């Protein structure tokens, strides 16, 4: 069975399709490397959260770092969502895509004064503040802008999300958030500063989380704090439980979004916090399984120790395997009936770490198109121009038709801002 989404299928003739469109045809029409997204798959993933939260005061803020293509943002904004942003650049994208700034939360440990001013002028919903010194800076910027900054403290609850160390964010040793035992003092400090209005509490414990327990533990830790803060006379309106829900890349069984949300709401009710607005910041679970990366096989290099299948996509297009040794499924877009062989699927970049998949088994010939599955999150968003490689084009399937939503980059554009010496 293919991991991921029911929108992806293999026909009895061996053709891999997304929303019914043969992926090999899209590769021929738009060229490779090519990201292809199913809009319907994204909306289905979002609907699972929306159904579970219906009837409650809530706001879903898509963590747009996962995939910030404007058409993706537009799709999600039109479905009523807000955004979790981490830079002024992301805010500019939200506005360009027609997103509503009053549904934007601004996270991140290193917001600059200029980014704070930009966000205040745009009218974001709140700042997820990650340190006491950030509170001081935000207060000063708000005063200079003649504005009141709505503040939610991102608390580091010190729970183990059980995920890759590079994508864990909720442990004491991680740089994110304010330590749980310092958070009450930080709330008191926030309430004492001019220009700030405390509105909520926030956490985000990591990414690609496949269990519910870390979420419930983190929520308990937040609610303990909410109770202490409110005893102090500081009102907390919303509770933001962050994002991080995992997807199936291989054989993982993450909880379904509606199951997770149901358990979180139950816990809120059980502890007497059912009246609070719930906020969530899902990224990967909305877009990850909605996308594939298509790449054409250039050369085959069979060998005794290893056989290499050299493709035209590389670590600069899809960083996750090189960076986290992430396992992503790779499937031929048209199956061959010849016996399969084992291949390391590698790109043209001059690094031994440039691989997309190791020890994969399929029958393949040069010119064939392969699809890297579950590539809709942290794929294009993390792409670079290393080796002066123009970034891939992106296509979104909308109502059964492919739409080019980002043109392939041209090499010339990569050095257009550079200057030759006199
Ligand atoms: C503050 C914040 N919120 C939400 C997310 C979304 O995470 P994910 O894509 O794992 O859902 C991230 C990234 O991990 C994040 O840093
Ligand atoms: N880039 C990571 C996720 C990072 C989450 C960011 N807070 C990945 O591909 O899995």
Topology:
Elements: E1 8-10, E2 16-18, E3 21-22, H1 23-30, E4 34-38, H2 39-53, E5 58-63, H3 70-78, E6 82-85, H4 88-96, E7 104-106, H5 113-122, E8 126-129, H6 132-145, E9 149-156, E10 178-179, H7 180-192, E11 196-202, H8 213-231, E12 238-240, H9 257-270, E13 277-280, H10 284-287, E14 291-301, E15 308-311, H11 320-324, E16 330-332, E17 341-346, E18 355-362, E19 369-372, E20 393-398, E21 401-406, H12 411-414
Parallel strand pairs: 4-20, 5-6, 5-13, 6-7, 7-8, 8-9, 9-10, 9-11, 11-12, 12-13, 15-17
Antiparallel strand pairs: 1-2, 2-3, 4-14, 14-15, 14-19, 16-19, 17-18, 20-21
The structure holds pyridoxal-5'-phosphate (PLP) and lysine.
Pyridoxal-5'-phosphate is lined by residues 63, 66, 84, 107, 204, 207, 242-245, 281-285.
Features:
single chain; 422 residues; alpha/beta; Lyase, Ornithine Decarboxylase, Chain A, domain 1; TIM Barrel; 2 domains; nine-stranded mixed sheet; 29% helix; 24% strand; binds pyridoxal-5'-phosphate; binds lysine; diaminopimelate decarboxylase activity; lysine biosynthesis
Provide a compact summary of the structure.
The protein has 422 residues and is an alpha/beta fold. The chain contains twelve helices and 21 strands.
State the separation between the terminal residues, measured CA to CA.
60 Å
Sheet of most strands: 9 strands, mixed
What spatial form do the alpha-carbon principal axes imply? globular
Strand content: 15-25%
Taken together, the total number of domains comes to 2
The tally of beta strands, per DSSP, is: 21
Rg over CA atoms: 23 Å
* Rounded average pLDDT: 96
Q: Using the 3D structure, state the CATH architecture of the largest domain.
A: Alpha-Beta Barrel
Q: Class of the largest domain, according to the CATH hierarchy?
A: Alpha Beta
- Helical segment count: 12
Query: Which small-molecule ligands are present, each listed once?
Result: pyridoxal-5'-phosphate, lysine
Show unreliable segments.
none
Name the CATH homologous superfamily of the largest domain: Alanine racemase
Class from helix and strand fractions: alpha/beta
Please give the share of residues in helix. Answer: 25-40%
Q: What is the CATH fold-level name of the largest domain?
A: TIM Barrel
Protein name: Diaminopimelate decarboxylase
Family: Belongs to the Orn/Lys/Arg decarboxylase class-II family. LysA subfamily.
Function: Specifically catalyzes the decarboxylation of meso-diaminopimelate (meso-DAP) to L-lysine.
Keywords: Amino-acid biosynthesis, Decarboxylase, Lyase, Lysine biosynthesis, Pyridoxal phosphate
């Amino acid at each position: 069975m293919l991991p991921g989404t029911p929108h992806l299928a293999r026909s009895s003739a061996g053709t891999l399709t997304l929303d019914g469109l043969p992926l090999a045809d899209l590769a021929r029409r738009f060229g490779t490397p090519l990201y292809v997204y199913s809009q319907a798959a994204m909306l289905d993933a979002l609907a699972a959260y929306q159904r579970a939260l219906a009837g409650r005061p809530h706001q879903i803020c898509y963590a747009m770092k996962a995939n910030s293509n404007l058409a993706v943002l537009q799709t999600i904004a039109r479905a009523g969502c807000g955004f979790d942003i981490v830079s002024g650049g992301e805010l500019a994208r939200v506005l360009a895509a027609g997103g509503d700034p009053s549904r934007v939360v601004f996270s991140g440990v290193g917001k600059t004064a200029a980014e704070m001013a930009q966000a205040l002028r745009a009218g974001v919903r709140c700042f997820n503040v990650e340190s006491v010194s950030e509170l001081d800076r935000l207060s000063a910027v708000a005063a200079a802008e003649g504005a009141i900054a709505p503040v939610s403290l991102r608390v580091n609850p010190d729970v183990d999300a059980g995920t890759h160390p590079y994508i864990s964010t909720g442990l004491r040793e991680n740089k994110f958030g304010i330590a749980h035992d310092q958070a009450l003092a930080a709330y008191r400090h926030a309430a004492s500063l001019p220009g700030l209005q405390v509105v909520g509490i926030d956490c985000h414990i990591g990414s690609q989380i496949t269990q519910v327990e870390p979420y419930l533990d983190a929520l308990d830790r937040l609610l303990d704090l909410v109770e202490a803060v409110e005893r102090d006379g500081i009102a907390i309106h919303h509770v933001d439980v962050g994002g991080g829900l995992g997807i199936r890349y291989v054989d993982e069984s993450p909880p379904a979004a509606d199951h997770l949300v149901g358990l979180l709401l139950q816990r809120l009710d059980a502890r007497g916090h059912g009246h609070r607005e719930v906020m969530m910041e899902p990224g990967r679970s909305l877009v990850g399984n909605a996308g594939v990366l298509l790449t054409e096989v250039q050369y085959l290099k069979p060998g005794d120790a290893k056989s290499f299948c050299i493709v035209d996509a590389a670590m600069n297009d899809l960083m996750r395997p090189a960076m986290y040794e992430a396992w992503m499924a790779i499937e031929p877009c048209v199956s061959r009936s010849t016996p399969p062989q084992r291949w390391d699927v590698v790109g043209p970049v001059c690094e031994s770490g440039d691989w997309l998949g190791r020890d994969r088994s399929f029958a393949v010939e040069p010119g064939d198109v392969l699809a890297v599955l579950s590539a809709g999150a942290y794929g294009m968003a993390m792409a670079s121009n290393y080796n002066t490689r123009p970034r891939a084009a992106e296509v979104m399937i909308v109502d059964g038709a492919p739409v080019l939503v980002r043109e392939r980059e041209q090499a010339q554009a990569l050095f257009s801002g550079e200057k030759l010496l006199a």
